[in-house]
Amino acid sequence: MWFENVGTFIDFGFQHIIPQGLDHVLFVVALYLNARGWRPLILQVTTFTVAHTITLGLAATGIVQSPGEIIEPLIAISIVALAVEAIVFKRANIWRLPVIFAFGLLHGLGFGSVMKVYLENADLSAGLVGITLGVEAGHLLVLLATGLVASAIQLALKSASKLQLYRPAFVIPVAAVIALVGLYWTLQRIGALPE
Fold it and tell me: Which of 58, 86, 168, 186 has minimal Cβ neighbours within 10 Å of its Cβ?
């Protein structure tokens, strides 16, 4: 029974990323854009997922209140911040991991209010384990897809002896689009733009 519940919540967690979580998708793509390699990148994504689970559990159990009018704009700002980081810095800074952990806490608060209804009538441990596994699987799939696209672009640029164009032709434009989407969401979520 416990494992069946975990399986159900894995599906919830995965769907929270794909197809419902464009904010998570953009966040993970922005993480990729100035990563130092796969090992630190996977550590960053897992750190984000763990932080997400902590506040998800706290919000879903009612221990922490998560006012959407504050949390949702902050989630959008976190996406802008990562995208701007990818534009400004060629490689991620050493302080990135604690920042990603803090952003994961924010994102978990946002999802916690949604999942509260589901977790109230379920085994909390099964729910949190399942959601965490599903969210992490979704993040890793986004990471893999981003890596494949980036590798294909790098290969094409390398074969044309233009590998130096990778940042200006791929990283910066993609990060700029992500930053603009995040900024639009921020303005929308504070009521400055219509929904």
Answer: 168
- DSSP annotation of 164 reads G
Give domain status of residue 194, yes or no.
no
Residue 56 falls within a domain, yes or no? yes
Q: Are 107 and 54 in contact (CB under 8 A)?
A: no
Q: How far apart are CA 65 and CA 116, in angstroms?
A: 11
Q: Is residue 40 part of a domain?
A: yes
Q: How far apart are CA 36 and CA 93, in angstroms?
A: 9
21 lies in which domain range? 2-189
Residue 182 CA to residue 5 CA, distance in Å, equals 34
- pLDDT interval class at 119 (50, 70, 90): confident
Q: Token pair of 165, please?
A: 């164009």
Asked whether the predicted pLDDT for residue 94 surpasses 80, the reply is no
Q: What is the count of structural domains for the chain? A: 1
Cis preceding linkage at 19, omega within 30: yes
The upper half-sphere exposure of residue 100, i.e. CA atoms within 13 Å in the direction of its Cβ, equals 27
Q: Give the mean pLDDT of 115-143.
A: 86
**Residue 195 domain flag:** no
